[in-house]
Design a protein that fits this description.
The protein is of the alpha/beta class and 371 residues long. It is built from twelve helices and 13 strands. A hairpin with a 3-residue loop joins strand 12 and strand 13. It is globular, with a radius of gyration of 21 Å. The structure holds coenzyme A (COA).
């Protein structure tokens, strides 16, 4: 029996603090008119000190699980797509797993930059379609404001923080993720990169003095690449689903630059009115931009069960990808469940596990002094 991966839950988490273009004028040599004309961005949200990539991911996930009426304990797979993980390891997905009490889930991070959410959606879909898992939590979460050089006007105007999450569940009804493509071209890796902090250039006084832990970007080249692949990937993924552009009601593109999106829609001869745009209020939230924009489309009544939509994105790597989804919504007849109410319980559970590990270490340490 073929299993289809339906998107049955969704949620977003946006930091409260807003940084407008006019605020940026006070930090770097730029102005509101330039930023709006070249990018379409007017403001972005910046994480507070207490917020992290994992905490935003947890907030978005609990909302998504509530929509899907799925208990965290029943989640089988967690994929966090991020370019701003909390650590090199452990994976941010494991932090999320612990904080939402997803005790039956495997958890890993996926790094495909701004295309990451599409890659993660496809990986989760394949895990469901193969019968390996019955459900998955797919999260895009970023705090890129912590990796941006706030004296570099070329990059600091673009990025914002936020998270979005989808719950995917298996069903025999044909719908959900109908097709997906993933592409990459590593020869363009240096066009958008954080050069240091990994094993190639471990952190040193030199890498810090040279500013190699910040985002470096060749904006013009990334722009050229993006305008080329967005329309191409959309056409390809629609064909792969045995559909034509006439069958598509909505496109949710990666929210990087309004000019890139307009060029792509023009090339596809697809009306801008049927394309979700929210980059004016959020900037580029990287891998979180597609799920955040989808949540807003649902909130605004622009996405209904039965609609066919395309997610399409591009990013560092270089990577790009697209997916066609037939929207279904939550499975009917499920008991309402509010996972956010269990936050304290999840914390307590995590605390108890740590204490128990400590006790075990003492017991084992006594019996096995060599360990
Ligand atoms: N404010 C004012 N002027 C700025 C500026 C800023 N924030 N940033 C650059 N400029 C200046 C440049 O110095 C340059 O001046 P010069 O002609 O005197 O040298 C001029 O504006 C034009 O710069 P250019 O880089 O050609 O601008 P652009 O039209 O390509 O726009 C980007 C720059 C970054 C907005 C654009 O290239 C872009 O969006 N690229 C894609 C980036 C992206 O999406 N990255 C994320 C991928 S997921």
């Amino acid at each position: 029996m073929t299993a289809y991966a339906h998107i049955t839950g969704w949620g977003k988490a946006i930091p409260e603090r807003v940084l407008t273009n006019r605020d940026l004028q006070r930090i770097v040599d730029t102005n509101d008119e330039w930023i709006v004309a070249r990018t379409g961005i007017r403001e972005r949200h910046i994480a507070a000190d207490y917020q992290t990539t994992a905490s935003l991911a947890v907030d978005a996930s609990l909302k998504a699980l509530e929509v899907a009426s799925l208990k965290p304990a029943a989640v089988e797979l967690i994929i966090v797509s991020t370019s701003s993980p909390e650590h090199l390891f452990p994976a941010t997905a494991c932090l999320v797993q612990d904080r939402i009490g997803a005790k039956s889930a495997g958890a890993f991070d996926l790094l495909a930059a701004c295309s990451g959410f599409i890659y993660a959606l496809n990986m989760a879909t394949q895990a469901i379609r193969s019968g390996s898992v019955q459900n998955a939590l797919v999260i895009g979460s970023e705090t890129l404001s912590r990796l941006v050089n706030w004296t570099d006007r070329n990059t600091c105007i673009l990025f914002g923080d936020g998270a979005g999450a989808f719950v995917l569940q298996a069903s025999e009804t044909p719908a959900g993720v109908l097709s997906a493509i993933m592409r990459s071209d590593g020869s363009g890796g240096e066009l958008l990169a954080i050069p240091a902090g990994g094993s190639r250039y471990p952190t040193s006084l030199e890498t810090i003095n040279d500013g190699l832990h910040y985002i470096k970007m060749n904006g013009r080249e990334v722009f050229r690449f993006a305008t080329r692949v967005m329309a191409q990937a959309t056409q390809e993924v629609v064909e792969k689903a045995n559909l034509t552009m006439k069958d598509i009601q909505l496109i949710v593109p990666h929210q990087a630059n309004l000019r890139i999106i307009e060029t792509a829609m023009r090339n596809l001869e697809f009306p801008m009115d049927n394309c979700i745009i929210n980059l004016d209020r959020y900037g580029n939230t990287s891998t979180a931009s597609i799920p955040i924009a989808t949540c807003e489309a649902i909130q605004d009544g622009r996405l209904k069960p039965g609609d066919r939509i395309v997610f399409v994105g591009f990013g560092a790597g270089l990577t790009w990808g697209a997916a066609v989804v037939e929207w279904s919504g939550p499975f009917p007849g499920l008991h309402k469940f509010r996972p956010a109410r269990y936050r304290l319980y999840f914390r307590f559970r995590s605390f108890l596990r740590r204490v128990w590990r400590h006790i075990e270490a003492i017991i084992w340490g006594r019996h096995n002094p060599s360990i």
